[in-house]
């Protein structure tokens, strides 16, 4: 672990730069940093850069606890903007990204570096994201639901050609060619990944590159997520001049997916126990109904920016 700059001798330059955007969650950030600072490589330095995105809480305790971590400040709202600043300050040929509320599993960073390092000019990889259960024997409804349906990294990478930025790694040279992450108006991870795909870069899934993400505490957190995603999707729908009929058909398909995905709740290997599966099914029904109603609402309302759902107050 250590800090370095591009002017340092090669032996002192970091092998990988880990970039972490942060907003108003210093306790979670310290938990994340505990997991990242405990990562081990067979050789080389690790550079860790936290970019605060306008928090209204102090990070002095974080600075004191982790003096080896560089902390920067990006006032423009949005995690993409924060990551861009971190990338600009990074000194390593490999870039790894994790979110402040995530916990890296042992071996996460080694798996990322080993995947990217052989071909850093062309490699983009994403890893597994699992829910961090409080009590694996008795999951909350949201934990059970998100264990099956949230963070479907392998599916996103294979079918939509992007990895969520909460568990992403690439060569710095790739990022330089593809360009910066977009602002908060769109889903910056999907936008960046699909731009990279159009340029010929193929994102690969690395199962050993695992992080854990806490489930949302209550349904309001899940609702805010879907408000943001539906706002992004509707923005793209309008930008591509697609018909409103198509939008409404998609909304009915979301509602109908309860029956297909309800069966998955009882077959997924990411859950165990009948009670956990039933709690997950209950939330599945509630969530799909909410998405249907929200899609109908945005179709009747003026277009809204995703920035409306970027919480800088809590």
TrEMBL record:
Its main location: membrane. It comes from the Bacteria. GO terms for molecular function: glycosyltransferase activity. The keyword Membrane applies. It is found in: Cell membrane. Keywords: Cell membrane, Glycosyltransferase, Membrane, Transferase. SUPFAM superfamilies: Nucleotide-diphospho-sugar transferases (SSF53448). The keyword Ion transport does not apply. Residues 17-169 form the Glycosyltransferase 2-like domain. One of its GO terms (cellular component) is plasma membrane. It holds the Pfam family Glycos_transf_2. InterPro entries: Glyco_trans_2-like, Nucleotide-diphossugar_trans. This is Glycosyltransferase family 2 protein. It comes from Glacieibacterium arshaanense.
